[in-house]
Amino acid sequence: MDKDGLLGGKFYFKKLPNGLLDKTKVTCTICKAEFRYHRSNSSLCYHLRAKHPESTSTGPCQSTPQDYSARGRITKHLSEKLTNSLVVWIAKDCRSVSIVEDDGLREVIRVASGDVCYNLPSRGTIVSRLHTLYEDQRDQRSSKLVQVRNVALTGDRWTSVNNDNYLGVTAHFIDNDWTLQSFALTVSKTEERQCAEACADHFLSVANEWKIKDKLTTFGTDSARNMVAAARLLPFEHMPCTAHILQRTITVSLNDSEFERVLSKCRKVVGHFKQSPANAQELKEQQVAHGQKTEPLVRDVPTRWNSTLEMIKRIQRNKSVLTTILAQQNSMVTMLTDQEFDVLQKLEELLEPCRYVTELLGGKRYVSCSVVLPALCYLFRIMELSDDDPVYVLRFKKVFTTDLAQRRDSINLTWLKIATALDPRFKDLKCVSKDERREVWASLHDLVMAETHSHQPSAQTTEEPSPKKRKIAICLLGSSDSDSEEEEDSIDRCLDRYKAEPKIDIEECPLQWWLKREGAHARLAPIACKYLSTPATTVPCERLFSLSGHIIQKRSASLSSDDVNKIVCLNNWLSVKD
């Protein structure tokens, strides 16, 4: 800044009626134009170069966009590239379309490119490009679905804060390279009531729209009554969400135990710090003073049992901090006793295996359906009664195992058993009884037989045999029984070869095992591809809502429901690494 003004006296601050200078506004001495001043001369230099080029030869000037690169403008090709990059960014990171009206973003691109005349594309252009990008990405996914024989679906209904109903559907399949693929098909707004018939019709319409109805194997839903009823109306195998089953079992077990009294006391302690900014700040200060990680306390949510586990973990980690603060404040909120902390420790030991199983079954990039029965077997083993257990732990374990056993019988056990047998990690089927193992291998025998017959040419497609061939066929009719016996023996040998293969480690990928041995087990491979592609939970579909909820909840007012569907699907598609 010069003594006489800015940029060699070419601009001066506006003088207020009281004689003081307004340091937020400046006036051009040449054309008397008034500008806002934010301690930067960039816009003032731009004004001089654009309106008064003859005056720019003297006086220092702050670095302008021209200083960062050549003085030329962005080419049409580069402008197209920038627009397409903006569209991908908006879709991939769920940004608002209105961000292209942000002056700050425009200035960033101007500085980065060196083109001070660059203007962002309009909202209409962005929305149009989003539609084009959606169609391109959709065609890519449609071509993938065309190449596979079997597709599994998960579906869920969701109500936004605006009380709008949305239907989400995801597809899951194993491609020709034995890679598990998973992506969204739709997140569309629905106007009808969420009755079973309407839900079933919507799911069928999505399947028909993507032309995969004849390829569908299973349909996964949560335990909501309308979703279960809708699944019964559909001509596909129903796969209940194992995570929801486990959620309900834990909720029942907690409500019918002595843990609830201690948990209620924990919630009061958490509320004391969550509802007061001063108390929250004091918690941070005490955590620093005790050399602990600064973290807020967490209050549990009834529909998320893992939040209960996180709440008791954080209270236990901050035991000394919380005790110190509550003692200093003489608060009406009482701290947990040592005996109550022992109860929390017992509860953590009970819930931690459940957390492990839930996370194990909730993945979408690896096989999960075949892990359900071994995982449930693991939980039953963890919940076995022990003489050292306190009475309240014994009660929790009894309620847990009884409830889980009842819910286990209501899931699609036939599908899960076959999937487990076709996973080289668990093909010994130790998670089921010996009688059940025989039934599983008998079912697999029938599936191989059906698969063999499905690939044989039908009588309608074969050519009419010549009289000579017909005579030979009649003579050989008597050998049909022996042929059938040979086929039975062939299938038995096929299954025996597979059962003789050594098990692989639990950390290894079963799909990679099948990729290497597809030729050796050619008759079993298509069945494995079908059964192992089914997800164990509807978490991928729920995660779809979670990742894109802020678009649906906050920005759908400025976008049509079709635009919301396209952006949410693009977010899912562009985030998935092929």
UniProtKB/TrEMBL annotation:
<dbReference type="GO" id="GO:0005634">
    <property type="term" value="C:nucleus"/>
</dbReference>
<keyword id="KW-0804">Transcription</keyword>
<keyword id="KW-0862">Zinc</keyword>
<dbReference type="GO" id="GO:0046983">
    <property type="term" value="F:protein dimerization activity"/>
</dbReference>
<dbReference type="Pfam" id="PF05699">
    <property type="entry name" value="Dimer_Tnp_hAT"/>
</dbReference>
<dbReference type="GO" id="GO:0003677">
    <property type="term" value="F:DNA binding"/>
</dbReference>
<dbReference type="GO" id="GO:0008270">
    <property type="term" value="F:zinc ion binding"/>
</dbReference>
<keyword id="KW-0863">Zinc-finger</keyword>
<keyword id="KW-0539">Nucleus</keyword>
<dbReference type="InterPro" id="IPR012337">
    <property type="entry name" value="RNaseH-like_sf"/>
</dbReference>
<keyword id="KW-0479">Metal-binding</keyword>
<dbReference type="Pfam" id="PF02892">
    <property type="entry name" value="zf-BED"/>
</dbReference>
<keyword id="KW-0238">DNA-binding</keyword>
<protein>
    <submittedName>
        <fullName>Zinc finger BED domain-containing protein 1-like</fullName>
    </submittedName>
</protein>
<feature type="domain" description="HAT C-terminal dimerisation">
    <location>
        <begin position="495"/>
        <end position="574"/>
    </location>
</feature>
<dbReference type="InterPro" id="IPR052035">
    <property type="entry name" value="ZnF_BED_domain_contain"/>
</dbReference>
<feature type="domain" description="BED-type">
    <location>
        <begin position="12"/>
        <end position="53"/>
    </location>
</feature>
<dbReference type="InterPro" id="IPR003656">
    <property type="entry name" value="Znf_BED"/>
</dbReference>
<dbReference type="InterPro" id="IPR008906">
    <property type="entry name" value="HATC_C_dom"/>
</dbReference>
<keyword id="KW-0805">Transcription regulation</keyword>
